[in-house]
Design brief:
This protein is of the alpha/beta class. The chain is built from 13 helices and 12 strands. The strands form 3 sheets. An 8-stranded parallel beta sheet has the order 4-11-10-9-8-7-6-5. The chain is globular and about 75 Å long. The N and C termini lie far apart (43 Å). It binds flavin mononucleotide. Flavin mononucleotide (FMN) binds next to α2.
């Protein structure tokens, strides 16, 4: 019997045993009651697949492009702070693992190592995540630094301008880690990073940033058709349907629930990605079938790193890829382009029978 973890949940279990409890809580936890964390898994788990027979699925190709860059399968690594909390090599291990498995890493500005050191370690495409800062000059400066270092896309996270209430961290008196990308800050003591942040940014500041940044810009944190339409109108090249892993605001919908509304609002004007709760290859397929171009994973990156550094993260990615190709094959789909709503069902065909007073009537056999 193999003792290595064989799925993402087992990776989490092993990581939990190895990490200090407060670190595990910081990574796994969410805002207030964590209702949306639970809802997210329920939402994915309640989407059923419709398998198809007698289709030639000898060859499955899950590759695609994101903003013109080739990726081997439609899973990217989410920006998330301080990978050093899971493994000493931090983001340098992350970018190596992603490149080896043929996917893009979106590196967080709150990384353990500087963006330059991480870029140095990367052998594949890397994107950089930052914020619309209080000082537009600093927003531009950080993006230019990233461009200079070799990052090819800037991801502006929009959903973190309000400090969330994460009760596990309050109980654990959790201290945030190092943030070497921010000048003058050794540690993010008491959220010192917030001196760079602003709650007053509007679509005007986004326009300004896009004019200032000479790289494609995507935004992260979109949860409504209204905002998705505005993103398209303001000319972003991509958006991530995300609620920040339910870490900012609780009792939002699961991202997969709002994906169709957002895809419709965007109407092909920019690429749509999704994150939040992707733990199985089948989840990836469900998101693609509902209109996402690719998905991103956040917490599974920490679980892979905590278990076995670069090798652990490569294994996490391979598991997702293998589960995805297996699921595509069983549903008679050879490429991502063949995936559409016909592979999934969200409403039980028996629902009427369950809700009728006479119940389910079976034909005589
Ligand atoms: C420990 C941790 C740190 C994070 N830090 C950032 C960050 O620095 N910037 C950002 O845009 N999102 C950050 N996120 C959110 C992730 O990018 C992503 O939206 C979320 O984790 C996706 O959900 P999942 O973890 O269920 O895959 C963080 C998430 C976690 C778990």
């Amino acid at each position: 019997m193999t003792t290595d973890p064989i799925n993402i949940y087992e990776y989490e279990q092993v990581a939990r045993e190895r990490l200090p409890a407060a670190e595990y809580d910081f990574i796994a936890g969410g805002a207030t009651d964590e209702l949306t964390i639970r809802r997210t898994r329920q939402a994915f788990d309640s989407i059923m697949l419709r398998p198809r027979m007698l289709v030639d699925v000898a060859e499955i190709d899950p590759s695609t492009t994101v903003l013109g860059q080739n990726i081997e399968f439609p899973v990217m690594l989410d920006p998330s702070g301080n990978h050093g909390r899971a493994h000493a090599e931090g983001e340098t291990a992350t970018v190596r693992a992603a490149a080896a498995e043929g996917v893009v890493t979106v590196v967080s500005s709150s990384s353990t190592y500087t963006l330059e050191v991480i870029a140095e370690a990367a052998t594949g495409p890397i994107w950089f995540q930052q914020y619309l800062f209080r000082d537009p000059g600093f927003t531009r400066e950080m993006a230019l630094r990233a461009q200079e270092a070799g990052y090819s896309v800037i991801c502006l996270t929009l959903d973190s301008n309000v400090t969330p209430k994460r009760e596990r961290n309050i109980r654990n008196d959790y201290q945030l880690a190092t943030v070497p990308n921010y000048p003058g800050l050794d540690r993010n003591e008491s959220g010192a990073i917030s001196q760079f942040r602003t709650r007053s940014a509007t679509w005007r500041e986004l326009d300004q940033a896009m004019a200032d940044i000479p790289l494609p810009v995507i935004v992260k944190g979109i949860m409504t058709g209204e905002d998705a339409r505005l993103c398209a109108e303001h000319g972003v090249q991509g958006l991530v349907v995300s609620n920040h892993g339910a870490r900012q605001l609780d009792t939002t919908f699961a991202t997969i629930e709002v994906l169709p509304e957002i895809v419709e609002a965007v109407d092909g004007r920019c690429e749509v990605y999704l994150d939040g709760g992707i733990r199985r290859g089948a989840d990836v397929m469900k998101a693609i079938a509902l209109g996402a171009r690719a998905v991103l994973v956040g917490r599974p990156v920490f679980w892979g790193l905590a278990v076995d550094g670069e090798a652990g993260l490569r294994s996490v990615l391979r598991i997702l890829r293998d589960e995805l190709t297996m699921t595509m094959a069983a549903c008679g789909k050879r490429t991502l382009a063949e995936l559409d709503g016909s592979v999934i069902g969200t409403v039980s065909p028996l629902l009427d029978a369950f809700t009728q007073p006479e119940g389910l009537r079976l034909p005589h056999v």
